[in-house]
UniProtKB/TrEMBL annotation:
InterPro entries: ArsR-like_HTH, WH-like_DNA-bd_sf, WH_DNA-bd_sf. This is ArsR family transcriptional regulator. It comes from the Bacteria. CDD domains: HTH_ARSR. Transmembrane segments: none annotated.
Length: 170
């Protein structure tokens, strides 16, 4: 990734885990309401609603026109307004961050030098694959408030990247 690419990414990609999760969900399912996003991602519907409005405010998503009811579905804006697909950018940033970690690992305090990188190939049905992803999201949900509420972070807590990719092998 060139310096220009990195600059463009920081201008177009929101650096917030809830927003990132919402964008990934929208890329996966097409349209979603705050309530649906909350159920899928393990956040509150109020938090999802707030971040969906922020994503819309900065042009990443748009409301889906509906004829009736209170539901407010959202969708990604046309791909033409985004220089690179979101998934590709996210994967590139994840990979780049991991490479930076490996290059600087010896400079961090001893207790932070261990990482928990692992992978597995398992045989699943589509329903089981969705269940695995939901289980990971729920496991991480109990730590989500710590970003917005620093006072509840335990002493010594630092930002930690958790990257999970659940996809069928072709």
């Amino acid at each position: 990734m060139t310096e220009d690419d990195a600059s463009r990414v920081s201008e177009t990609l929101p650096e917030h885990e809830v927003r990132t999760a919402l964008l990934e969900l929208l890329a996966e399912v097409g349209t979603v309401t705050a309530t649906e996003a909350a159920a899928r991602l393990g956040y509150s519907s109020g938090l999802c609603s707030f971040h969906l409005r922020q994503l819309a405010r900065y042009g990443h998503i748009e409301e889906v026109p509906v004829s009736r009811g209170r539901a407010k579905p959202w969708r990604l804006r046309g791909q033409s307004s985004q220089p690179v697909g979101f998934g590709e950018l996210a994967r590139g940033l994840e990979d780049e961050s991991y490479q930076q970690w490996l290059a600087q690992k010896e400079r961090v305090p001893e207790q932070w030098r261990r990482d928990e990188a692992f992978s597995a190939v398992v045989y699943l049905t589509p329903e089981e694959m969705a269940s695995v992803a939901d289980t990971v999201r729920r496991a991480l949900a109990r730590y989500q408030d710590r970003e917005q509420r620093p006072t509840i972070r335990p002493d010594g807590a630092r930002p930690v990247a958790v990257v999970t990719r659940v996809f069928p092998l072709v």
